[in-house]
């Protein structure tokens, strides 16, 4: 027996005893320190200026060669495309795009994919991507770069970005006539938003799957030609050829980000070509708000956290990250006509084209895959960032509460017991200590944990069962009903299952440990999600104390636990968003509309998880919800707790 | 069964016939010839293929004659003296030949450096061949300024089925050894071109070689330098030998990348200058220009001196021939230039039909742990074709034979069906970490108008930290696969017949089957790579510190710490002294007892045992005390 397992150390340690006495204070100190540290990160003293780590990029080393004729071509192509769009109200003019690729001398291919919509009752949707490959003269097709543009048909509900394809084509025509390419260039026009991109990438990296035997929802199909190992990708969304500003989107699937070097590269080149650009760039009017730099930075940070936490990519670039291809989206916004800046339509796109050329030439220079700079960072300002080493302490401080509390509860478990015994049996000089730890109901608690986990996991499985899908209710109501049913089961569980003596304490310790580990892991994978969840739930976890006798505090903890129920949280978030989106609605309408929106949100999250591999839904069902059930059990601890002490008294 | 038979027959067929047809022509004298040729073929999609071939053929007779070289470079003669090499092929290539649009090249080469050689001698062993092979590669590393010195046993294999000796008598197979290696990472540039040109009799001073200016030929989409050495000795008369050195330069120009972007081109635009004459050493100096197919679009000035129609396997190709020696016959001739004038206006891009057989290769899977190598072979012909595929997988990638699958699909379908092709031929030599590459050869019949997808799963190895190249994150290369087949038709087929040595030997060279080898793309794999930067070093250092600190921390954490409470020692000072004295006395007495025992061994072992038991009891009581005090 050594330090780790010596019982004589933990029970009679004065330090532990005194810490245990101030446990709650200690936890709140940790919590405050974590949040304060995070707030401080927005201060310029706590974050760093960006720099280019990869020397091979050398942005702006070459003079841009793309000229006004490319702009003229883009204009002409846009006019042609507008004519084509009249005939293709809900489809992509594949033939026109292919004809253009062919005319420019690219190898042109199409890619078909099929979506078996999980809730469609066997319905299938078909899509078709078009791509052209420019074979680089300096390489044997071992490496490639992707330039992609999503195409949206006229009846799409999203913003119109018709000009992306002409810009892409104009650049392709320019690039075809250059002989310095050392990586194959793939020009890809996708349809069906992210679905097309996901299918293309899956087909590229996972190859063919047998259509009939595969049970996947997205049948990615096969690609007739490839361009080696893809090194980087640039997605272009252009609203109009007259560009006001460029918003650089980086957040990818599950909160993954491209290498910071790539973002810096884009910023440098854009600045050089005189294009206003930035991360979360907003139109000029909003930018004129008189905010202090600190406040602006904090807003930027929080908005990045909000986008990242959902795990949903905010552009087609986000799907590349899973395959270790660094990618981002240039989203060029349309210039408002009443702007006082007069622009010449015949040269309006030249700066944008020049910057695309500059970025592509820098990427072309890359000898190695992006590896130098950061993959985990938070952008504070366009030229300032926080690295993982700086922001992790904030999360660690928050989560430390649960570990400290778990340790102290564990080590004072015997002490409390001994006091009780001494009270009961008077001052007997019995040296043999009755260790409570040996008699704890480990098996029962384990079973209880497994039951909660199973209830949570059902949320992943049940809505996708065939026999349930055959019921004649829509996807949204079905999923929502399932989740509410599971929720009810979770809420009811502690009323039906009474833990044996000591079970509550053990459950509490287990919950604290699982909670801490889960949040650390989630925080490493997706910092934003981990941090936001920790910031919301740590106070509740700290306040929970199944053995306390303070009624008011217990009531508060119960209320808090109820408020933090995943469904309630989702509803609240959606409600707030709806309120901002539709301020004209009455309160009752608002509540109803939010219910519908929750239904959609839940369904989309489920679809995201089965098609794109977004694990937010999975984590919410399998990690957060079981944890919540345990919290709820602990918050309701009153009856069972009394029983325990009664039982104890009887034994004694 | 039938497929297997046909395949082996076809494979064996080609080299057999050669020896007999060639030998009677030999005479007992040394004669040496040099020929220079240039072939220009417009290809689909605004590409132009130019192929230079310089052939030196020396009928040297007896071995002794190799000491006196004239046109043949001395290095080649010396190699033949020193090593038992009979046939040698070297290719230095940049880019990838696109079979689907360009058809087949005249000589095949894979990206980077490729080297294979046949050795033959009565008393050769595998080990001695390995040694000779490495030395040979080193010699050519010096001659061509290429990294061929990296060829060794870890990246060389002995192909079993796919390569056949072209020129060697196929008598005793047990004395013939072949070695093959590729260096896909090799980058080919001027430094290889200059020494390559120095092997020519006229160097780059005159003749067609003056056109090979590095500034122009390295701006092409594909360029490949080749060196081929073949020797042949009469099997009855060893003093009747000949050596043939063929140097080839195969280039593909992209007309869109030339400065003025219309479809016209000329020798001057392609090579930067016109032709200033012919090599005086050359027996013949000719330019062949393809006139039909893609060449039909162009008008030539000056018009060719003669036209040759070649019918190969029912496929007609029309060549215009310029004899440069005639061209420069009269004194005062100026620079010679040929111009191809394209059609005015927008030429319609006609759809080219792909060649009968082509292949692609790619890597599937994500992550740095494992993946799948997929090779796709497509047969557009209306008959089944025999296909042999050779894979050389480097040692840092583990291939698993049990995952080898050949699935097929009809050409018009997008998805592969679940039916698998059976292979009629399989040779597999598993790799060994840091010693041997995995060598896989499979043969199968590819049904008509269908594709086959050959996949094999691989694991990536975590290398030792010194085994990573300086640019570790670039990835490691897997060389291209080699695919061999026998085509029944001559469409798109332009390679020289095996017994021929001039380009004109390929005219009207109809054969029952046309041996074809294809090369696929090379692959880049990202092996698991540590972050070679400051944090990496810090981690290494921290791990060392942890390793050093582990021992003490472990012992503190696990070992029992006993504080000996000396309760037997009385508190009183006087008694303490008495106790000390008694304890010392008792200890001394036991010592003396022991000494006595050692001195008087004849006392028997019984006593010793008793003593030992006593001591044990003493120890036990002491330990009991300790436990009680705890």
From TrEMBL, chain A:
Keyword Acyltransferase: no
Assigned keywords, A-Z: Membrane, Transmembrane, Transmembrane helix
Membrane-traversing stretches: 440-458, 478-499, 511-537, 557-578, 590-611, 617-637
Matches recorded under Pfam families: Gaa1
UniProt protein name: Glycosylphosphatidylinositol anchor attachment 1 protein
Source organism of this protein record: Drosophila arizonae (Fruit fly)
Higher taxonomy: Eukaryota, Metazoa, Ecdysozoa, Arthropoda, Hexapoda
Gene this chain is encoded by: LOC108618209
TrEMBL record, chain B:
Keyword ATP-binding: no
Domain of life of the source: Eukaryota
Record's keyword annotation contains Signal: yes
Region (Disordered): 588-630
InterPro entries: PIG-T
UniProt keyword annotations, A-Z: Signal
Compositional bias ranges of the Polar residues kind: 619-630
Signal peptide: 1-19
Biased composition (Basic and acidic residues): 604-618
Protein name as it appears in the record: GPI transamidase component PIG-T
UniProt source species: Drosophila arizonae
Lineage: Eukaryota, Metazoa, Ecdysozoa, Arthropoda, Hexapoda
């Amino acid at each position: 027996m050594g330090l780790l397992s010596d019982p004589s150390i933990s029970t009679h340690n004065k330090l532990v005893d005194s810490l245990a006495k101030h446990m709650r204070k200690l936890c709140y100190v940790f919590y405050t320190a974590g949040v304060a540290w995070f707030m401080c990160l927005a201060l310029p003293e706590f974050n760093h200026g960006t720099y280019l780590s990869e020397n091979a990029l050398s942005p702006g080393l070459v003079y841009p060669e793309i000229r006004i004729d490319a702009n003229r071509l883009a204009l002409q192509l846009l006019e042609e495309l507008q004519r084509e769009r009249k005939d293709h109200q809900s489809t992509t003019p594949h033939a026109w795009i292919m004809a253009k690729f062919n005319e420019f001398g690219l190898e042109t291919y199409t890619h078909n994919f099929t979506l078996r919509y999980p809730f469609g009752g066997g319905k299938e949707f078909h899509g078709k991507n078009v791509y052209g490959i420019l074979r680089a003269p300096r390489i044997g097709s071992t490496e490639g770069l992707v330039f992609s543009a999503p195409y949206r048909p006229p009846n799409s509900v999203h913003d119109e970005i018709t000009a992306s394809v002409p810009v892409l084509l104009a650049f392709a025509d320019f690039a075809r006539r250059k002989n310095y390419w050392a990586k194959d260039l793939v020009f890809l026009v996708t349809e069906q938003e992210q679905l097309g991109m996901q299918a293309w990438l899956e087909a590229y990296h996972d190859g063919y799957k047998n259509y009939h035997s595969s049970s996947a929802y997205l049948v990615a199909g096969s690609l007739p030609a490839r361009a080696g190992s893809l090194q980087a990708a640039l997605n272009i969304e252009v609203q109009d050829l007259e560009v006001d500003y460029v918003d650089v989107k980086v957040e990818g699937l599950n909160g993954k980000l491209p290498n910071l070097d790539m973002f810096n590269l884009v910023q440098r080149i854009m600045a050089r070509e005189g294009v206003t650009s930035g991360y979360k760039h907003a139109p000029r009017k909003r930018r004129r708000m008189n905010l202090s730099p600190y406040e602006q930075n904090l807003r930027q940070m929080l908005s990045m956290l909000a986008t990242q936490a959902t795990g949903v990519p905010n552009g087609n670039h986000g799907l590349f990250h899973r395959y270790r291809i660094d990618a981002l989206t240039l989203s060029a916004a349309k210039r408002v006509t009443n702007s006082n800046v007069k622009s010449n339509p015949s040269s309006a796109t030249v700066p944008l084209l020049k910057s695309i050329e500059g970025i592509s030439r820098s990427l072309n220079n890359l000898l190695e895959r992006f590896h130098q700079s950061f993959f985990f960072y938070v952008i504070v300002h366009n030229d300032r960032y926080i690295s993982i080493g700086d922001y992790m302490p904030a999360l660690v401080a928050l989560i430390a509460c649960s570990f400290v509390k778990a340790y102290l509860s564990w080590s004072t478990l015997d002490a409390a017991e001994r006091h009780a015994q001494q009270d009961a049996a008077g001052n007997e000089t019995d040296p043999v200590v009755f260790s409570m730890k040996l008699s704890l109901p480990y098996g029962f608690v384990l079973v209880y944990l497994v039951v909660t986990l199973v209830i949570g996991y059902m949320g992943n499985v049940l809505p996708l069962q065939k026999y349930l899908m055959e019921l004649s209710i829509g996807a949204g109501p079905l999923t929502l009903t399932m989740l509410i049913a599971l929720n009810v089961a979770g809420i009811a569980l502690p009323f039906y299952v009474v833990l044996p003596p000591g079970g509550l304490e053990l459950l509490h310790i287990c919950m604290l440990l699982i909670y801490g580990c889960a949040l650390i892991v989630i925080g490493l994978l997706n910092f934003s999600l981990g941090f936001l969840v920790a910031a919301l739930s740590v106070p509740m976890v700290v306040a929970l104390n199944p053995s306390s006798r303070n009624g008011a505090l217990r009531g508060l903890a119960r209320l808090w636990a109820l408020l933090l129920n995943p469904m309630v949280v989702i509803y609240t978030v959606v409600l707030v968003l709806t309120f901002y989106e539709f301020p004209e609605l009455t309160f009752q309408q608002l509540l109803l509309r939010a219910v519908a929106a929750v239904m959609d949100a839940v369904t989309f999250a489920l679809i995201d998880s089965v098609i794109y591999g977004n694990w937010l839904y999975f984590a919410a069902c399998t990690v957060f919800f079981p944890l919540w059930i345990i919290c709820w059990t602990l918050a309701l601890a009153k009856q069972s707790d009394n029983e325990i002490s009664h039982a104890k008294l009887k034994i004694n | 069964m039938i497929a297997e038979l046909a395949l082996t027959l076809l494979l064996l067929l080609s080299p057999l016939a050669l020896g007999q047809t060639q030998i009677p022509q030999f005479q007992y004298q040394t004669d040496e010839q040099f020929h220079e040729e240039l072939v220009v073929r417009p290809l689909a999609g605004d590409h132009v293929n130019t192929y230079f071939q310089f052939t030196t053929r020396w009928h040297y007779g007896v071995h002794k004659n190799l000491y006196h070289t004239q046109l043949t470079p001395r290095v080649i003669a010396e190699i033949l003296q020193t090593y038992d090499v009979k046939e040698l092929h070297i290719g230095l290539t940049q880019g990838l030949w696109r079979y689907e649009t360009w058809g087949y090249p005249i000589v095949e080469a894979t990206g980077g450096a490729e080297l294979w050689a046949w050795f033959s001698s009565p008393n050769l062993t595998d080990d001695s061949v390995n040694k000779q092979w490495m030395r040979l590669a080193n010699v050519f590393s010096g001659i061509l300024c290429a990294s061929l010195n990296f060829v060794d046993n870890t990246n060389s294999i002995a192909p079993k089925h796919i390569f056949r000796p072209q020129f060697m008598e196929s008598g005793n197979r047990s004395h013939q050894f072949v070695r093959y290696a590729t260096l896909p990472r090799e980058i080919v540039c001027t430094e290889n071109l200059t020494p390559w040109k120095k092997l020519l009799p006229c160097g780059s001073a005159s003749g067609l070689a003056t056109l090979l200016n590095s500034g122009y030929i390295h701006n092409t989409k594909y360029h490949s330098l080749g060196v081929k050495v073949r020797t042949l000795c009469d099997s009855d008369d060893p003093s009747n030998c000949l050596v043939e050195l063929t140097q080839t330069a195969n280039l593909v120009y992209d007309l869109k990348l030339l400065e003025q972007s219309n479809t016209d081109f000329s020798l001057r635009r392609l090579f930067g200058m016109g032709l200033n004459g012919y090599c005086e050493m050359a027996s013949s100096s000719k330019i062949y220009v393809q006139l039909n197919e893609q060449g039909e679009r162009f008008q030539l000035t000056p018009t060719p001196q003669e036209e040759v129609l070649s019918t190969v396997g029912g496929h007609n190709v029309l060549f215009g021939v310029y004899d440069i020696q005639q061209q420069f016959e009269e004194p005062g001739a100026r620079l010679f230039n040929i111009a191809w004038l394209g059609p005015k206006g927008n030429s319609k891009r006609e759809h080219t039909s792909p060649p009968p057989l082509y292949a692609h290769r790619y890597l599937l899977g994500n992550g740095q742990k494992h993946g799948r190598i997929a090779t796709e072979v497509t047969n557009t012909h209306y008959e089944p074709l025999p296909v042999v595929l050779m894979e050389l997988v480097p040692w840092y990638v583990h291939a698993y034979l049990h995952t080898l699958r050949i699935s097929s699909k009809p050409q018009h379908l997008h998805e592969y069906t679940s039916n698998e092709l059976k292979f009629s031929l399989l040779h597999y030599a598993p790799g060994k970490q840091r010693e041997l590459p995995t060598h896989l050869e499979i043969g199968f019949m590819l049904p008509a108008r269908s594709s086959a997808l050959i996949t094999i799963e691989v694991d990536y190895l975590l290398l030792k930290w010194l085994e990573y190249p300086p640019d570790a994150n670039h990835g490691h290369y897997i060389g291209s696969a080699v695919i061999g087949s026998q085509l029944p038709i001559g469409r798109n087929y332009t390679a020289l017949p095996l017994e021929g040595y001039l380009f004109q030997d390929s005219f009207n060279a109809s054969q029952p089957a046309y041996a074809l080898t294809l090369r696929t793309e090379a692959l880049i794999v990202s092996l698991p790579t540590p972050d070679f930067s400051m944090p990496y070093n810090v981690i290494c250092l921290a791990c060392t510190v942890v390793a050093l600190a582990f021992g003490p921390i472990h012992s503190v954490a696990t070992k029992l710490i006993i504080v000996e409470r000396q309760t037997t020692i009385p508190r009183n000072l006087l008694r303490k002294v008495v106790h000390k004295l008694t304890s010392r006395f008792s200890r001394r007495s036991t010592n003396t007892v022991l000494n006595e025992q050692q001195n008087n061994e004849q006392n028997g072992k019984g006593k010793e045992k008793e003593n030992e038991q006593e001591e044990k009891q003493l120890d036990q009581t002491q330990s009991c005390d300790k436990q009680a005090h705890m």
